[in-house]
Structures are given as C-alpha cells and as structure tokens.
Write a structure and sequence with these properties.
This protein has eight helices and six strands. It is α+β, with helices and mostly antiparallel strands and 212 residues long. It has two domains: 67 residues, Winged helix-like DNA-binding domain superfamily/Winged helix DNA-binding domain (Arc Repressor Mutant, subunit A, Orthogonal Bundle), CATH 1.10.10; 128 residues, Muramoyl-pentapeptide Carboxypeptidase, domain 2 (2-Layer Sandwich), CATH 3.30.1380. Strand 3 and strand 4 form a beta hairpin. The strands form two sheets. A four-stranded antiparallel beta sheet has the order 3-4-6-5, with helices on one face. A two-stranded antiparallel sheet has the order 1-2.
Length: 212
Amino acid sequence: MLAEGMRPRSATRLLHALKSAGPQSAAVIARRLGVTSTAVRQHLAKLQGEGLVAYEDQAAGVGRPRRRWRLTEKGHGRFPDSHAGLALDLIQTVGRIFGEEGLDKLISAREQASLELYRARLGSGDLRQRLRRLAALRSEEGYMAEVAAVSGGGFLLSENHCPICVAARACQGLCRSELALFRAVLGPGVEVERTEHILAGARRCAYRIRAA
C-alpha cells in the first residue's frame, strides 16, 4: 500500500526531484511534491531498501543534523542512457577499424550536424532568450537541462542527466565536442566554461556562461 498522501507514481516523481535538483531533505521534497513529510520519508525508506537513494547527515548548528537524501549510482541508472549499448558498440567498432582518426572524424561530423540544428533552433535574441531555447532543446534530447541567472553576472546551464554517458565514458572526445558546440553556437562574444562534470564525479554537468 502506498504511503498516505502519495499517488501511485509519486515514487517516480520523488526520484525525478532528486535527479533534477540534487540532494534535498525530506521536508523540501515534500513541499516540491505537495505531500506530507511522513509520506516522503516512508517512500525514501523503501527506495533506500532498493538501493536507489542514500542519505548524509550534515551538521546544522544547534540541534539534530540535517538529513539530505540523494540518488545512488543505481538510482541514477533509473534514468537510462539513450541506446547506450548500441552507441558503445558503434564507438568501439569505429575505433577498432578506423582508429583514433576515424573516431575524431565521427565526432566532428556529429558536432557539425548538431551545430547546424542548434543555430536554426536558437535563432536571434539576447543571451538569456537563446540560452532558454538551448536548455529546451537539450531537454528534448534527454539532458534535463535548465538555465538560471547567477550572482556576479551571467548564467548557469545545468544538465541533470546525460543520455550519452556510457558512450562518453568510452570516448571522452564527445564531452570535448559538446563544450565546443556550445561555444560555437553561442558565438565569439560569449564565454562558456564547464564547472561541473558527471565524468569527473559530479552529479550533473554545468556550464557558466556570460558575455565576454
């Protein structure tokens, strides 16, 4: 039986909340989902038993530590890579037959095709408008992207999921290509810096973007 106040798909929504916003307390998750903290804790306990979530207790001054829940590696695996097995097999085959030069040509062709699509979709407008379109496009591709203004000027483009993660681990040129793609499509008047990287152990990929 589901916990009181939780709908049938709330466990999935709970996992999605942790994926999209990172580690959170049960109270914060409850507010996001519009249910009780008790219901969230019951689901978290069940998901923990399945190995999908874990928690860390953080000191919060006087009183009890603050418990923050996060997805485990298995939990992140509930958001699968797109055609991961096929992509990995193709990359390994290209590398075996054509070597590194062949892989570089494959990545360059993919980057150029994406650049043409992105330029057409982003269109004109100020940097904020174009980044919103970029985030929407990346979300369509499975990256769960969002953009927000940051203090000190500029924006942060966050991608909470990587649908090509398996392929990128086997061929890290794909990650270099995506950074180059952002820089090319946004133009020479915009600085793009990757500040968080899933392959480096972060929970997401994030890019600091600002006018040069």
